[in-house]
Amino acid sequence: MSATLSIRLAQRADAKDLLKIYEPYVTGTAITFEYEVPSVSEFADRISNTLKRYPYLVAVEAGQIIGYAYASPFKSRAAYDWAVETTVYLDVNVRGKGFGKQLYLALEDALKKQNIINLYACIAYASSSDAHLSNASAIFHEHLGYTQVGYFTKCGYKFDTWYDMIWMEKMLNEHSANPPVLLPVTAIF
């Protein structure tokens, strides 16, 4: 971690700051397929719901929240307990400085301690980059050891454009016959 970056669990009270980070991705990019910016209250609920089971981390530099990362269920059935979907967002003004990598590695460390095995990233993908989407997220995930395992053609429509979606995967732990039980996030923080 850089000397100026600290990473901690998110709180409901962070919702307004996190929403400021997320809003430009909703309104100006196809990185998220969400059309409307959620309310602060809805975003706070998202944080609380995630923290019931998984880590929701924020990165703070010089007293300012500059990014966040969290895990969510890959699927809701018990057999999927060892698999999660991962997400990371950075303030658009701090991208390219390594903060996203530090935040994601902290998330991976927490998930490994919870006994999570499979990480999945659902990534909007452009057959050719445009003003709303480059494929930087896929490249970022590849550098972190994710591999592409799925490709869905023109499954998301935003800004009058059809976008593809890819799924990328990374394994944190070995797959054993009797995997250790999933620990709640409260057991590791």
Describe this protein's structure.
The chain is of the alpha+beta class and 189 residues long. The chain has a single domain, classed as 3-Layer(aba) Sandwich (Aminopeptidase). It is 26% helix and 32% strand. The chain has helices at 15-28, 40-51, 99-113, 136-143; strands at residues 5-9, 56-61, 64-73, 83-90, 118-125, 147-158, 161-171. It has a seven-stranded mixed beta sheet with strand order 1-2-3-4-5-7-6, with helices on both faces. Helix 3 (99-113) links the parallel strand 4 and strand 5. Helix 1 (15-28) crosses helix 2. The chain is globular and about 45 Å long. The two termini are 18 Å apart.
Placed side by side, the strands forming the largest sheet appear as 1-2-3-4-5-7-6
Major sheet: size, sense and barrel closure?
Answer: 7 strands, mixed
Gyration radius, in Å: 16 Å
Oligomer: single chain
CATH H-tier superfamily: Gcn5-related N-acetyltransferase (GNAT)
What is the averaged pLDDT score?
96
Low-confidence runs of at least 5 consecutive residues: none
CATH architect. name: 3-Layer(aba) Sandwich
Protein name: N-acetyltransferase
InterPro entries: Acyl_CoA_acyltransferase, GNAT_dom
Domain N-acetyltransferase: 5-173
Organism: Aminipila butyrica
